[in-house]
Amino acid sequence: QSVLTQPPSVSAAPGQKVTITCSGSSSNIGNHYGNSYVSWYQQFPGTAPKLLIYENNKRPSGIPDRFSGSQSGTSATLDITGLQTGDEADYYCGTWDGSLSAVVFGGGTKLTVV
Amino acid sequence: QVQLVESGGGVVQPGRSLRLSCAASRFTFSNFGMHWVRQAPGKGLEWVALISYDGSNKYYADSVKGRFTISRDNSKNTLYLQMSSLRAEDTAVYYCGKDLAAGTVDYWGQGTLVTVSS
Lengths: 114, 118
Fold this sequence. Notes:
Chain A is an all-beta fold.
């Protein structure tokens, strides 16, 4: 069982918007004193994960602004707008847990664009 | 572009040991913390270990604490994971990753498969 909770799957139609949630606790996502920023990763089958969002809402160079992140309290969300079939992938949230002194990931969310 | 290349994976019997390596290039290796993250077949990501830029601080997942050791050689731009007392549940693709800050992995290797089986 993962420390961070994500829905196993989400789906939406091309062009629409989808939101993926990531729920944690005061020792990780809600740990503002411990710099527990949330990151989001995208992973296609058979390939390594790729960083999509870091520090809750920042995008690395090359990541389209269709991808956005936010954090509030002990939860974080990843929004993907203008969905494309090429966005079909697994998405993971991750952060530092101050109580565990460890990086923790969510269980992953499979996005289907139908 | 940052390059990370893992090696050392393979099939190993339960209870035996294995050492993974991660060769880093195209960035100043000695300035950054480094991670190992694994993914069992058909499962999600599981963080394994983190080492600070100079090797002075190391952190481990509870599932590997006391069995795995993360280390680095900054003169060789190489990260290591020494795995001992291997179990079937350690079977996974092992990725090395560069730490951006606060536990974020901004670059990942292609992964190396470790299979623990008799």
